[in-house]
Each structure stands twice: as structure tokens, then as C-alpha cells.
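Page 37, top half.
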Amino acid sequence: MSVIEYTTPSFDLSEEVLLLRDAVREIGEREILPTAAKRDHDHAFPAEIMKKLAEAELMGMLIPEAYGGTAIGNLALSVVLEEINYFDASVGVTLSVHNSLCASPISRFGSHDQKSRYLPRLAKGELLGAYALTEPDAGSDSANLRLKAEKRSDRWVLNGTKIWITSGDRAGLMVVFARTDSAAPKAKGISAFIVETGWKGFKVGKVEEKCGLRSSSTVEIHCEDLEVPDENLLGELNGGFKVAMDTLDGGRIGIASQSLGIHRACLDASIKYAKERQQFGQPIAEFQAIQWKIADMATDLDAARMLTHRAAVMRDRAVPCSREAAMAKSFASRACNRAADEAVQIHGGAGYTKDFPVERFFRDARITEIYEGVTDIQRLVIARSLLK
């Protein structure tokens, strides 16, 4: 008997989700793909595209209908993110962070007042959401954060720095994690706050020059005597680490879904090129070496999608899925990077130039093994769940 008790949900996509997938694919072909390479070159944030996604009701997929969202769930979001990332991973991560890392924790842990104030605006795209956990000394060791929140009357005053914040200079709302009890063990003294980025004391620092995802913004932020009302404490006082880890389960499903989109783009580009490129008097698709690469890419993609959809279904069913989300993220991101490497190899010298999109896919793929927890951390999550 296996030591792992696997949940085996149905992955059948409803007609609603299939129609949504097709609609998103049309948006991708019409609105995203034509400008993806130029935005990557220019490091141009996709502001107008995000407005289009808001109009398509894709900004509130995890927000309850009572607060203006569609509440269509994590499986549907995974399907949508695969489609968006197929066309442009920069747009994909911006949408994923908004839904999975900002709107979701407010939906899951927020008070009625917090939900009423913020979720409708997030759902409409009036506010772009972000998530601030990582610090210079708190990366994989996320409980080691030092940004401090001190209680003063009916307010909390935040001081410190966060790094690697996706959309940090574009977001109107951010879930920020701070140390509220310096005497408590690391994970026990952290709280989560809902921060409006227009408040005095919120400052954007260094804008990162990245290898990939170059039309997504990644910045350093500083809190300098930033005052946050007590009613913006998200969840329980000193219960922020639970909020962070629960949110990362959803975020990891999002990055696994991103990996699927990039992976599929690599596969499609490789098939197209292999059929067109002639060597030794025939298309290179006729050579077994190329066929095996494509076969492995396709097999990995299907396996990654199954793992990702399983985790998404479990989260939709409120079944604990930290291990499954880690498995999905770990496998899908590694498979994506293998696919990107093989896509460049199949294209040969052409794949190393900007004349073909696999060069961009190769750069975008690399981050999937790093953010939302590096691959090694995913392995630790999986191993500890089996060995506890």
C-alpha cells in the first residue's frame, strides 16, 4: 500500500470553464500576443491589457459574488492562467499575483468590512493587488522577516523594507507581512496587514532589471513610519504566518499554471519549427532525435497539468493541499525549464536570437523555479509532509 493517500478528483472541465478558456484564448491572440515581444523589449507594463482582463471579469475569479467577483475557483483560474501565460508570462504573473496573492487572502481571512471596502474594487480592476512577504534576510526563510509594526493608539506604524514585489509600483493595494511581536518565536510574531499604497510612508525603491518577465514590474518597497489603521489587520494578531503559508499554496498553483502556459508555447513553437526547418533534404521533424524531444515535452506537459489541476481542485474543495501544490509547482516548473531548453536546442542558432519567441520563453521560464518558493523548498514541503 502506498504511503501517500492521493485524492483523485474529476478533472472534467465544466462547459462554463471551457467557454471561459476559449474566450481568454481569443483575448490572448487579439490583445496580448501582438505586442508581447515589444513590451518585453521595452520593459513596458501591460496596463491597457490589464484593463481588458478586468472587463472580461478575470480580476475577481476567487472573490465571492457578494463582493463583486465571479468566485469561479482555482481550477478555472489555473486554466485561465495557462492560456494567458501561453501568450505572455509577464501578463500572466501580474494576473496571478492579483488573484492568488492579494484578492484570495482578503477573501479567505478578511472581515466583512475589509471585504466590502476592497474586494469590489479588486474585482473591477480599479485596484491592482500585490503581496509583500520577502525581505533581504527573509527569502526561503520567510519567517525571518524584520519589517516591524508597532501599535500606537488605534494604528500600526510599519517600518522596514520588502524586496522582489511583483507589481509593487503599480498596485493600489498590498497584503504586507510585518513582525508584531519581537519576543515571540519567528513564525509566531508575524501579522498581515492590508495596505493602500497611496498612504503616506509607502515608498517604491529599486526597480529590478530582470532576465525575463520584463514587462512585469518587480520592485523594492519601503515602509517609513507608514500608518495602517487597526481595522486593516488581516486575520488574527500574530497569525500572519498562517495567512502567508495558506496564500502561498494558492500562489504555487498559480505559478504551476504559468509553467504550463510557457511549456505549451515552447512545445507548439518547436513543432512548428521542426516541420518547417529543412536539413539533409528533409524537415528536421523526420529525425528521431527531434521526435524524442517533442515526445518528452508533450508527456511532461500532460503530467504537469494533471498535478496542477489536482491541487486546484483540492483547494476549491477546501481540502488541505500544501503537499500537492508543492508537487505541482516543483514538477511543472522543472518541466517548463526543460521544455524551454529543448525548444531553443530544436531551433538551433535561430533559437538564440530574438527572431523567434523561444528566446523569450527561455528567459521567462527560469523564474518559475525560483519565486513562490524555490524548487528545493518545494521538496522540503513534500518530504516533511511524508516524514512527520
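Page 37, bottom half:
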Amino acid sequence: MGGTFDPIHYGHLVAAEAVRSEYGIERVIFIPSGNPPHKVTKRVTNAERRYLMTELATVNNPYFYASRLETDRPGSTYTIDTVSEISRICDAGTELFFITGADAIFSILTWKDARLLLSMCAFIGVTRPGYNKSSLMEHIGNVNEQYEDRLKFLEVPALAISSTDIRRRAEFGKAIKYLLPEEVETYIKKHDLYRLDLKDFDKDNAIKYLSENLTEKRFLHTMNVAWEAVGIAERLGADKGKAYIAGLLHDCAKDVGQTPEAFKDIGVETYDGAFPQLSHGPLGAKIARELGVNDEDILNAITYHSTGRKEMSLLEKITFVADAVEPGRPEDAQREIRAALDQDINGAVVSALKRKFEYCARKGQSVHPLGREALSYYESLKN
């Protein structure tokens, strides 16, 4: 059974047990993904921690095993490599099944060596009750005709539980008990994996303001940037709560009328007529203050999230990069900037700045002097 397992929960365990019972399977090997290529544009918790949670969740079931195959493999991890390795280890004649969510089968033809993979093992797509298989079967029609005996489906009620929902609940201190094994819950709390300390910040009021003042597309963008900022902060050991707030409010003024009059009305004297598309930064910082944010580092992150500047604080860099890699951005840009981030945050800032300059060139826009100064500064740090 492959998956991100971020975190593993009862839905995964019930699905594995249902499959084991239905198909008479000898053992289920849970393989947390290492560096999944399909998740390169998403925030994923450290592979070692995800493996340890999987070990804790499966240790009491004699038919379940946790594997480090992908955790220890360097570079991107592909299912074909994992299945090949398991085939090599197993006795001759062992029949292999790969358990995954039914939705994953939608994209099976995009997997590396997909047809070879289908010849090596059967796929069992576990579904929620009421899942409509017809559109899936239509989508994979050609594959299904050729490999009909290799694609199986099983309905599992507990799949209504979601890792995403568990993370969101844990991040704000809400109960996650009975959604996942107690040992995993204890591990999450002990290592503070998802918890955000927002101090006295009124998150609900801020989200209400954003939902009422931003377009639907912009609102989704801000939520994505908030969570990307949390993920980057977690990797760098920075304050995840502050990163969340900065990301959440970075575009809070984006859809506000950005005219000199609008700025004057709220007491901001920094309207830049030469770069009106970037003026929402300082205006956003003013609005953030009105929403209860008094932390100068957060306010600076909001102010300079579009232009950047030299000698940015770590939080400013995190917000700047998070804005550049959220899922709505072009995938090639996300990959490039994330690859730089794997090395260091300054390199990611340089990559994000260059991408921003390319965008300005395509749009016929001038590059803000602060941005040019920032690029020169951070490139000099590499020399």
C-alpha cells in the first residue's frame, strides 16, 4: 500500500484490512512515499517522520509491515522502482497487489513505465461509498480493456477520513482522536508536527474579511500561500504560526481599489504610481494592522512580498517564496523554485525573483527597483 501517509489514519488501516480479507492477502506492506514526483508542487512532511508514524500505526497488526524502501531511496521515488524491488525480494510466483485510492488510477497512464507496472502487479483502487466508477472507467477505457484483470475496486466506508482534514484540525488544536491510532496522535503532539501557534490572532475574523473582500480565485490563492508558507517554515525551523499569518494576509489588499485616494483614506502615504500593481503590499500591511497584527516582521513580509528587498528576514523570504510556489503557479516555475529551495532559501529567492522578472517582461511591466536590488544582493551571496 503506497501513499504519502501525512499522517496515516484509520481510513488507510481499514482499507488495508478490507483488501487483505477480501483477496486473501498474506501481508500488507505500507510504503510511505519518499520524494514523490507527483507531490513536488505540494507541501509534504519529512519522510522519516511519516515512516515512523506508519511504523507506529502498523506495529500491532501481525499482517501489516512498514517499509523504508522509499524513505531511504535518494531522489524522486517511482512506484515502478518500488514494485521491482519487492518483486526481487519475494519468492518466485508471489502475486503482488498495489493498493491505492481509486482517484489515483485516473492518472495511472502518466506514471513511469505504467504498462510495465500493470503487467507486474494488480491494482486495487479503494473507494468511498457511492463513488462513481463510470467516469473513471471511461477515462481509462483503453487500459481497462487490455488489463481488465489487473484493475480491481473495493468500497471502504472509513475512507471518508482525510489526512488533509486531520492536518488542518491538528494545526489549530482541534481534536483528532479516533481518526487515527493513539500512538500516531501521541507522536504528532510530542513532535508538534502540525500545530500552529497563532498567539492572539483572530484567524476566523481574518478569513471572513478575505472571503468578503477578495475574488474567489484570489481567496483560494491566499489560503494556498498560507499553507505553503507553513510548510517552508517547518522545513527551516521558523515560526509556523507567523508564516501562516503572513501568507494568509499577503494579498489582503489585492482586490481593494488601489488608488491614491484609497491609500490616503486609510493613512498609507506610500502609493507608488509607477508600480500600481505592487502597491497592495504596503496597503495590505495597513489592513493587517486593523485585523490585529502588530508583529513588525509579519507586516514587513506582507509589505515586501511582491517586490522583495535586500537583507530580508527569514519570514520575508518564506512569504516571498511561498507566493511563488503555491499550486496555482505554473508547474515549471514551481519545480524550479522548489529545487532551489532544496538547497537553501536564498537560492529559492533568486529563482523566484528571476521568474517574476520574466513575467514582467512578458507583460511589458517594469521591474521594481527593490526587486533588482534584491536579485543583485542575493546573487552576490553565492559568490
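Margin note: The chain has two domains: 2-188, 203-380.
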